[in-house]
Amino acid sequence: MLEPEILVEGNFTKEDISVRLNTKKFTLTDDIEKEIDDIWKEKIKEAKENNLNLYNGTSYRLLDIKKENNKLHIVFQEMEFRQRFGLREIHRRHGIHTDLYRMGCFVSATVKTADGKYLMVRLSGKSMNMNTIEVLGGIMETNINLDSDYIFKVVSSELKEEIGVLEKEIIKNNLIAVFRGGYTNICFYFEVELSINSDEVKQRFDKNRDIDVSGVLVLTLDEYKDTLQNHNLNKQFIYKLFTKDHK
Fold it and tell me: What is the mean pLDDT of residues 171-179?
């Protein structure tokens, strides 16, 4: 595992970002693809035996990102989830090599309610994510139209899916940093503020439960910082980003 590394940092809104898709197919050598296929078959078997949700969707990986005059220019490329997952397992088995960096993209968000609380979720154990507690967010998949608002739409979509928050209830949704995580995926880290309080979120969640999420955690600022600081390497890095402006 690598130490997380900042690619860009700032305070970006929708107007600050442009995105485009490079249509060149993401390819790996035949021997790597063969190992990924074998890993994926093993994972399918494990998922069936343990009743886990598993599918080979299409997501985005980061090809290029540049910051010019406080504007971000981002280039994505499509990759299969089996490749994304398989490369992580290869990293565990053989170590991480620069030519096999995954660069698969996901969003993570610090979410603050109108009454000054911070939200995380308890996971059900039915997904590929084996954490028990997680920040809000998810993989950047191709089911949302890729335009200049894309990454912000992903955040909004995840909030609606995981805890039932509507886009109109998001009063702040800013991209704070993009960093490469410990297993070479790319985190787009957001800070989000809601117009509704934590009680409303809990009530909403009970009516809009996502299969992968078993509960909503409502935390004070200190509890939220403590949870991040004592989580995995990526969450510890988010803690460092968050506490720069939230002492």
Answer: 97
